[in-house]
Amino acid sequence: MVDLIPEMVKLEKIALGGGCHWCTEAVFQSLKGVERVEQGYVAATGDESWFSEGVIVHYDAEKLPLHILLEVHLRTHKSTSAHSFRTKYRSAVYTFSAAQKSRAEESIHKLQSHFGEPLITRVLDFSAFKASREALHNYYQSDPNKLFCINYITPKLKVLLEEYSAYFNTSFLK
After folding, report:
1. pTM
2. Where in the chain are the domains?
């Protein structure tokens, strides 16, 4: 007898801040193994409790390992650059458990050798999330010919296609 109920995939989630949430959303929507991306504003606990633009990525860790997800994150935004907009566009990884935080810190430490300058990306404890306006969701997918998409999002997707083709969903790039 054939089992007609598919085995449930256990998804993991992690929140990421890396510049504009429109760009970050499109980057992670384009990866195989990502089931859903929530776009909006993420806050950490403690001294860094302000909201900054970010996403929550729900993914299948068997298809997309955390270290690859974090490497993509670090390579598709200015993860080594401090600038005046860092409060609004914080380079961060927001974790949901102590174990996830430890894995993220270890991955970022190992990835540091791939960058010419020190990474400024912070690993923080997730505190809260506020979704962006519905009109902004799926920003790239709704119209990839918008000037913002052409100038900022499409170049990031092309980097992913070249460097991470095994993880990139080629049907995503328009």
Report:
1. 0.91
2. 12-163
